[in-house]
Write a structure and sequence with these properties.
Elements (H helix, E strand, L loop, with lengths): L1 H19 L1 H12 L3 H52 L6 H6 L4 H9 L1 E4 L5 E4 L4 E4 L1 H18 L8 H11 L3 H4 L23 H25 L3 H14 L3 H14 L4 H13 L3 H14 L3 H8 L3 H7 L5
Antiparallel strand pairs: 1-2, 2-3
Helix pairs in contact: 3-6, 3-9, 5-9, 7-9, 10-11, 11-12, 12-13, 13-15
Protein backbone atom coordinates (compact mmCIF):
# COMPACT_ATOMS: atom_id res chain seq x y z
CA UNK A 1 0.00 0.00 0.00
CA UNK A 2 1.31 3.48 -0.92
CA UNK A 3 0.60 4.82 2.57
CA UNK A 4 2.65 2.11 4.31
CA UNK A 5 5.54 2.60 1.89
CA UNK A 6 5.56 6.35 2.57
CA UNK A 7 5.43 5.73 6.29
CA UNK A 8 8.31 3.21 6.13
CA UNK A 9 10.38 5.65 4.05
CA UNK A 10 9.86 8.38 6.66
CA UNK A 11 10.92 6.05 9.47
CA UNK A 12 14.12 5.13 7.62
CA UNK A 13 14.93 8.78 6.95
CA UNK A 14 14.24 9.66 10.59
CA UNK A 15 16.61 6.91 11.79
CA UNK A 16 19.36 8.20 9.49
CA UNK A 17 18.92 11.74 10.84
CA UNK A 18 19.06 10.46 14.42
CA UNK A 19 22.22 8.40 13.76
CA UNK A 20 23.95 11.35 12.08
CA UNK A 21 22.88 13.82 14.78
CA UNK A 22 25.86 15.37 16.61
CA UNK A 23 23.88 15.46 19.87
CA UNK A 24 23.00 11.77 19.65
CA UNK A 25 26.61 10.86 18.99
CA UNK A 26 27.74 12.98 21.92
CA UNK A 27 25.09 11.53 24.21
CA UNK A 28 25.98 7.94 23.20
CA UNK A 29 29.64 8.54 23.97
CA UNK A 30 28.71 10.31 27.21
CA UNK A 31 26.69 7.34 28.47
CA UNK A 32 29.50 4.92 27.62
CA UNK A 33 32.41 6.93 28.98
CA UNK A 34 30.90 8.67 32.03
CA UNK A 35 30.89 6.55 35.17
CA UNK A 36 29.79 9.34 37.52
CA UNK A 37 27.75 12.08 35.81
CA UNK A 38 25.43 9.89 33.76
CA UNK A 39 24.19 7.81 36.72
CA UNK A 40 23.82 11.06 38.71
CA UNK A 41 21.76 12.75 36.00
CA UNK A 42 19.67 9.62 35.56
CA UNK A 43 19.04 9.37 39.31
CA UNK A 44 18.09 13.05 39.51
CA UNK A 45 15.63 12.74 36.63
CA UNK A 46 14.12 9.62 38.21
CA UNK A 47 13.76 11.44 41.55
CA UNK A 48 12.10 14.44 39.89
CA UNK A 49 9.64 12.23 38.01
CA UNK A 50 8.88 10.31 41.20
CA UNK A 51 8.36 13.56 43.17
CA UNK A 52 6.09 15.00 40.48
CA UNK A 53 3.73 12.04 40.27
CA UNK A 54 3.87 10.78 43.88
CA UNK A 55 4.09 14.08 45.80
CA UNK A 56 3.34 17.18 43.73
CA UNK A 57 0.20 16.05 41.89
CA UNK A 58 -1.54 14.56 45.00
CA UNK A 59 -0.60 17.69 47.01
CA UNK A 60 -2.05 20.02 44.38
CA UNK A 61 -5.19 17.90 44.32
CA UNK A 62 -5.49 18.23 48.12
CA UNK A 63 -4.86 21.98 47.96
CA UNK A 64 -7.63 22.42 45.39
CA UNK A 65 -10.01 20.55 47.68
CA UNK A 66 -9.03 22.54 50.77
CA UNK A 67 -8.80 25.95 49.06
CA UNK A 68 -12.56 26.73 49.28
CA UNK A 69 -12.50 25.96 53.01
CA UNK A 70 -9.50 28.25 53.57
CA UNK A 71 -11.23 30.97 51.56
CA UNK A 72 -14.46 30.59 53.56
CA UNK A 73 -12.71 30.78 56.95
CA UNK A 74 -10.59 33.76 55.86
CA UNK A 75 -13.75 35.55 54.69
CA UNK A 76 -15.23 35.09 58.18
CA UNK A 77 -12.08 36.51 59.81
CA UNK A 78 -12.15 39.55 57.51
CA UNK A 79 -15.87 40.10 58.06
CA UNK A 80 -15.59 39.88 61.86
CA UNK A 81 -12.58 42.21 61.82
CA UNK A 82 -14.44 44.79 59.75
CA UNK A 83 -17.35 44.79 62.22
CA UNK A 84 -15.00 45.20 65.18
CA UNK A 85 -13.41 48.34 63.71
CA UNK A 86 -16.62 49.92 62.42
CA UNK A 87 -18.71 49.17 65.53
CA UNK A 88 -15.92 50.11 67.93
CA UNK A 89 -16.08 53.58 66.39
CA UNK A 90 -19.90 53.45 66.48
CA UNK A 91 -19.82 53.64 62.69
CA UNK A 92 -17.91 56.94 62.69
CA UNK A 93 -15.75 54.84 60.38
CA UNK A 94 -18.14 53.54 57.74
CA UNK A 95 -17.77 50.20 56.01
CA UNK A 96 -17.03 52.07 52.78
CA UNK A 97 -14.22 54.04 54.40
CA UNK A 98 -12.91 50.84 55.98
CA UNK A 99 -12.81 48.94 52.68
CA UNK A 100 -11.39 51.90 50.79
CA UNK A 101 -8.06 51.13 52.49
CA UNK A 102 -7.30 54.83 52.99
CA UNK A 103 -8.14 55.06 56.69
CA UNK A 104 -5.45 57.03 58.52
CA UNK A 105 -4.35 56.90 62.13
CA UNK A 106 -5.66 60.44 62.75
CA UNK A 107 -9.09 59.56 61.30
CA UNK A 108 -9.26 56.46 63.47
CA UNK A 109 -8.20 58.42 66.56
CA UNK A 110 -10.92 61.03 65.95
CA UNK A 111 -13.51 58.28 65.45
CA UNK A 112 -12.49 56.53 68.67
CA UNK A 113 -12.55 59.80 70.61
CA UNK A 114 -16.24 60.13 69.81
CA UNK A 115 -16.88 57.03 71.91
CA UNK A 116 -16.29 56.32 75.59
CA UNK A 117 -16.35 52.85 77.15
CA UNK A 118 -17.41 51.89 80.63
CA UNK A 119 -15.92 48.77 82.20
CA UNK A 120 -18.55 48.62 84.96
CA UNK A 121 -21.64 48.11 82.82
CA UNK A 122 -20.84 45.17 80.61
CA UNK A 123 -18.66 47.40 78.43
CA UNK A 124 -21.33 49.85 77.32
CA UNK A 125 -20.35 52.57 74.91
CA UNK A 126 -21.66 56.12 74.97
CA UNK A 127 -21.55 57.98 71.66
CA UNK A 128 -21.13 61.75 71.79
CA UNK A 129 -22.84 62.45 68.48
CA UNK A 130 -26.01 60.44 69.01
CA UNK A 131 -26.20 60.39 72.83
CA UNK A 132 -26.71 56.64 72.60
CA UNK A 133 -25.65 54.09 75.19
CA UNK A 134 -25.18 50.63 73.73
CA UNK A 135 -23.29 47.42 74.42
CA UNK A 136 -19.96 47.28 72.65
CA UNK A 137 -17.64 45.28 74.89
CA UNK A 138 -19.50 42.00 74.66
CA UNK A 139 -19.81 42.46 70.90
CA UNK A 140 -16.08 43.06 70.43
CA UNK A 141 -15.13 40.23 72.80
CA UNK A 142 -17.34 37.77 70.90
CA UNK A 143 -15.95 38.76 67.51
CA UNK A 144 -12.35 38.67 68.72
CA UNK A 145 -13.09 35.19 70.08
CA UNK A 146 -14.55 34.17 66.71
CA UNK A 147 -11.43 35.39 64.92
CA UNK A 148 -9.21 33.45 67.31
CA UNK A 149 -11.25 30.28 66.77
CA UNK A 150 -11.15 30.65 63.00
CA UNK A 151 -7.38 31.21 63.06
CA UNK A 152 -7.15 27.94 65.00
CA UNK A 153 -9.17 26.21 62.26
CA UNK A 154 -6.91 27.71 59.57
CA UNK A 155 -3.82 26.41 61.33
CA UNK A 156 -5.14 22.85 60.96
CA UNK A 157 -4.19 23.26 57.30
CA UNK A 158 -0.77 24.70 58.11
CA UNK A 159 1.08 22.35 55.73
CA UNK A 160 -0.95 23.82 52.84
CA UNK A 161 -0.46 27.49 53.80
CA UNK A 162 2.23 29.69 52.31
CA UNK A 163 4.80 31.31 54.65
CA UNK A 164 3.49 34.77 53.71
CA UNK A 165 -0.05 33.78 54.64
CA UNK A 166 1.14 32.33 57.96
CA UNK A 167 3.09 35.50 58.74
CA UNK A 168 -0.02 37.64 58.23
CA UNK A 169 -2.15 35.32 60.39
CA UNK A 170 0.49 35.34 63.15
CA UNK A 171 0.74 39.12 62.97
CA UNK A 172 -3.03 39.37 63.41
CA UNK A 173 -3.07 36.94 66.31
CA UNK A 174 -0.22 38.75 68.07
CA UNK A 175 -2.11 42.04 68.09
CA UNK A 176 -2.49 43.09 71.73
CA UNK A 177 -6.15 43.83 71.13
CA UNK A 178 -6.77 40.12 71.72
CA UNK A 179 -5.02 40.18 75.10
CA UNK A 180 -5.78 43.63 76.43
CA UNK A 181 -9.35 44.29 75.37
CA UNK A 182 -10.62 44.18 78.95
CA UNK A 183 -7.90 46.61 80.02
CA UNK A 184 -8.08 48.91 77.03
CA UNK A 185 -11.02 51.01 78.27
CA UNK A 186 -10.69 53.80 80.77
CA UNK A 187 -12.29 53.28 84.17
CA UNK A 188 -15.55 55.19 84.53
CA UNK A 189 -19.07 55.03 85.88
CA UNK A 190 -22.51 55.83 84.58
CA UNK A 191 -24.47 57.91 87.10
CA UNK A 192 -28.17 57.78 86.30
CA UNK A 193 -29.14 59.87 89.32
CA UNK A 194 -27.23 63.03 88.59
CA UNK A 195 -27.05 62.51 84.84
CA UNK A 196 -24.77 60.64 82.49
CA UNK A 197 -21.08 60.82 83.36
CA UNK A 198 -18.97 59.90 80.36
CA UNK A 199 -15.80 57.93 81.18
CA UNK A 200 -12.63 59.59 79.90
CA UNK A 201 -10.30 57.50 77.73
CA UNK A 202 -6.85 58.15 79.11
CA UNK A 203 -5.25 55.39 77.01
CA UNK A 204 -6.29 56.60 73.55
CA UNK A 205 -2.68 57.09 72.41
CA UNK A 206 -1.86 53.38 72.86
CA UNK A 207 -5.31 52.10 72.06
CA UNK A 208 -5.54 53.89 68.69
CA UNK A 209 -2.24 52.31 67.55
CA UNK A 210 -3.46 48.87 68.62
CA UNK A 211 -6.70 49.24 66.63
CA UNK A 212 -4.92 50.81 63.63
CA UNK A 213 -2.42 47.94 63.44
CA UNK A 214 -5.34 45.50 63.65
CA UNK A 215 -6.98 47.30 60.72
CA UNK A 216 -3.78 47.37 58.61
CA UNK A 217 -3.16 43.65 59.17
CA UNK A 218 -6.71 42.85 58.06
CA UNK A 219 -6.13 44.94 54.92
CA UNK A 220 -2.93 43.00 54.27
CA UNK A 221 -4.77 39.68 54.72
CA UNK A 222 -7.53 40.77 52.37
CA UNK A 223 -5.04 41.75 49.67
CA UNK A 224 -3.25 38.40 49.99
CA UNK A 225 -6.39 36.23 49.66
CA UNK A 226 -7.63 38.42 46.80
CA UNK A 227 -4.41 37.76 44.88
CA UNK A 228 -3.93 34.09 45.84
CA UNK A 229 -7.26 32.49 46.74
CA UNK A 230 -10.22 34.35 45.27
CA UNK A 231 -11.25 33.47 41.76
CA UNK A 232 -11.20 36.33 39.27
CA UNK A 233 -15.00 36.40 39.32
CA UNK A 234 -15.28 36.63 43.10
CA UNK A 235 -12.61 39.32 43.23
CA UNK A 236 -14.58 41.37 40.69
CA UNK A 237 -17.83 40.87 42.64
CA UNK A 238 -16.25 42.16 45.85
CA UNK A 239 -14.70 45.16 44.09
CA UNK A 240 -17.95 45.95 42.26
CA UNK A 241 -20.12 46.01 45.38
CA UNK A 242 -17.61 48.13 47.31
CA UNK A 243 -17.27 50.59 44.44
CA UNK A 244 -21.05 50.95 44.29
CA UNK A 245 -21.53 51.53 48.01
CA UNK A 246 -18.58 53.95 48.00
CA UNK A 247 -20.49 55.88 45.31
CA UNK A 248 -17.71 55.34 42.78
CA UNK A 249 -20.23 54.59 40.08
CA UNK A 250 -17.96 54.68 37.02
CA UNK A 251 -15.70 52.12 38.68
CA UNK A 252 -18.74 50.02 39.66
CA UNK A 253 -19.91 50.08 36.03
CA UNK A 254 -16.49 48.87 34.85
CA UNK A 255 -16.39 45.97 37.34
CA UNK A 256 -19.98 44.86 36.73
CA UNK A 257 -19.50 44.85 32.96
CA UNK A 258 -16.56 42.49 33.48
CA UNK A 259 -18.70 40.25 35.72
CA UNK A 260 -21.35 40.04 33.01
CA UNK A 261 -18.67 38.80 30.61
CA UNK A 262 -18.42 35.74 32.90
CA UNK A 263 -22.17 35.37 33.35
CA UNK A 264 -24.43 37.40 31.09
CA UNK A 265 -27.37 37.08 33.49
CA UNK A 266 -25.71 37.52 36.89
CA UNK A 267 -28.54 38.98 39.03
CA UNK A 268 -26.41 41.10 41.38
CA UNK A 269 -24.26 42.45 38.55
CA UNK A 270 -27.35 43.42 36.54
CA UNK A 271 -28.79 45.32 39.50
CA UNK A 272 -25.58 47.12 40.47
CA UNK A 273 -24.79 47.94 36.84
CA UNK A 274 -28.26 49.38 36.24
CA UNK A 275 -28.25 51.30 39.52
CA UNK A 276 -24.75 52.62 38.81
CA UNK A 277 -25.82 53.87 35.37
CA UNK A 278 -28.79 55.68 36.94
CA UNK A 279 -26.64 57.27 39.65
CA UNK A 280 -24.07 58.22 37.00
CA UNK A 281 -26.85 60.06 35.07
CA UNK A 282 -26.96 57.47 32.29
CA UNK A 283 -30.58 56.91 33.21
CA UNK A 284 -31.90 55.32 30.00
CA UNK A 285 -29.16 52.66 30.04
CA UNK A 286 -29.84 51.93 33.68
CA UNK A 287 -33.57 51.60 33.10
CA UNK A 288 -33.03 49.18 30.20
CA UNK A 289 -30.75 46.90 32.25
CA UNK A 290 -33.00 46.89 35.32
CA UNK A 291 -36.10 46.16 33.22
CA UNK A 292 -34.27 43.18 31.71
CA UNK A 293 -33.17 42.05 35.17
CA UNK A 294 -36.70 42.38 36.54
CA UNK A 295 -37.99 40.22 33.69
CA UNK A 296 -35.47 37.49 34.55
CA UNK A 297 -35.65 37.80 38.34
CA UNK A 298 -39.05 39.00 39.65
CA UNK A 299 -37.67 39.02 43.21
CA UNK A 300 -35.58 42.08 42.24
CA UNK A 301 -38.74 44.18 42.48
CA UNK A 302 -38.51 44.92 46.19
CA UNK A 303 -34.78 45.48 45.99
CA UNK A 304 -35.22 48.03 43.19
CA UNK A 305 -38.00 49.81 45.09
CA UNK A 306 -35.84 50.03 48.21
CA UNK A 307 -32.57 51.07 46.60
CA UNK A 308 -33.35 53.17 43.54
CA UNK A 309 -34.00 56.75 44.65
CA UNK A 310 -34.65 58.26 41.24
CA UNK A 311 -38.46 58.26 41.04
CA UNK A 312 -38.58 58.81 37.27
CA UNK A 313 -36.29 55.83 36.67
CA UNK A 314 -38.22 53.70 39.13
CA UNK A 315 -41.51 54.50 37.36
CA UNK A 316 -40.06 53.62 33.95
CA UNK A 317 -38.58 50.36 35.23
CA UNK A 318 -41.98 49.10 36.37
CA UNK A 319 -43.90 50.29 33.32
CA UNK A 320 -45.52 47.30 31.58
CA UNK A 321 -43.71 44.94 33.94
CA UNK A 322 -46.90 43.21 35.09
Amino acid sequence: MPFLKQFKTKIVLFNRVIKNSAFIKWFTNFTKQSTFWFPLVLSTLSALIFYYFINYIPRQRDINKIKPQIEFITDKILWDGMFIVTEMTHQNISQNKYYDGSLTLIELENALRENFFDTKMKYDCYNLKSNELYNIGGFVSDYLSNINKNIGVLLRYIIYLDPEFLNIINELQRNILFESWDNSRAIGKINFYGGLLKPVRNDISEFKICVFEFYKTLQKLEKYVDENYYSKLKSLQIKASRAYFSKKYKLAIEFNLKILEFNKYDKDAMFYLGASFINDYQISRGIKILKEGLGLYPDLEQFIKSNIENEYAKKKIFENSK
